[in-house]
Predict the 3D structure of the following.
Amino acid sequence: MATEKKTLSNEHISIDIETLPQCKIKIKGTLKQAVVKDCYKDATKEISKKVEMPGFRKGKVPPAMLEKNFKKDMVAKTKELALQKTLLETLILSKLHILQTHPTLRSNFKVFDVEKDCTFELEFQVEAEVPDIDLKDIKIKKTKEEAITQTHIDDMIERMQHYFAEFKEVKRKIKENDFVDLDIYDEEQKQMIFNDKRFRVNKKSMALWMFDALKDKEVGQTFEQTSTLDVDAPKEVKDKFKPTKCKITIKKIVEGSFPDVDEAFAKKVGSNNVEDLHKNAKKMLEQQSKEKVKEEDRTSLIEAILKKHPFEIPEVLLSTQKELLLKELVSRLSDARALDKDIIERKKDLEHTAEIQAKKIIQTYLLTQKIAKEEKIEVSQNEIISHLLKVMPQQAMQILNDPNQTEKRDAMIQDTVIYLTQNKVLDLLIEKLSKD
């Protein structure tokens, strides 16, 4: 964003305003001598009320004696009052929308003399100018809902079986359909990809290169292997694939005994019989597919909007959000057992990633909040509770019902309101797009 300059004045003050990138405003100006003198009089009155001198009661000390004995205090108080007046007059004259959470970045007098005009400098952080969105300018490719096949249903039922399976650790070479706990370390990125992660050793559950590499290996073995692409991999996987040199450590080999898919099992998972189990599994998968489509469409829409209507955001908001995300990224690397020196080496990349994500988060928030206000979109208490119980049932109930976790509860509810509001706004825009 190019800087913009303008000059304004009234009987009290004159200011030169410079608009800078990242919603910063720099102001140089002059406070007229008459205003400074009024501030000096007010300062004298305030100090007089507090001062006692022999022969005089509080508030009755003559100004000349005050000036003689408390000149330094009077000038300091005058400067304080003059700065307050400067800020007030500047805001009235400029009509700036100051960012309430971080209003003044810098304020000081360059020259201050109670007998003269006083020059000053101010720096403000102002609110972002969120653009109006014209949907005629926006085009997105809507995500197609995936058709649910019998294979998908069987996979889901297998995951249910896994929940009720019995596992036994074994000391032998790996066989097909065993389970293995692995550490997988990315030799190039210098970070753990998986830490103590359990895999099922078969061609359906893992990439062929890993299946071949694990066969006949034993617990405790560590070996290096470079990932390769399966011939029948989907196009989207092929487009994003990049060979990765990995160091793999086998930590445990486990045999799994799975329950039969019969009526007893069906009832265990909340269905009446096997046929009902298949129907319920299909419904769940269809719902998941719909949610996935919604999320992908929302992401596509916000990216299209921000590409078409980019806007500056306050630097203080960006830096705060960036710092939070950076801590999270570093924490993930630490949890993945990345070495400190590797984290330091990647810090620049991490900072760049955090800044991009932070900018998108803040822009999305500001944009959706503006539209929510215009469209009178609100989130009900029932919607908040319903969402929390869906995504984190046990934790949500514990926090909501614990009087000692008020701060955590309020933060959780606020985050939920923001999330649901954004979704409602984006879903509304997608609906409008589909009608155009």
User: Anything to note?
Assistant: The mean pLDDT is 88. The longest strand covers residues 245-257. The chain has three domains: 4-125, 166-257, 293-435. The domain at 166-257 is CATH 3.10.50.30 (Chitinase A; domain 3).
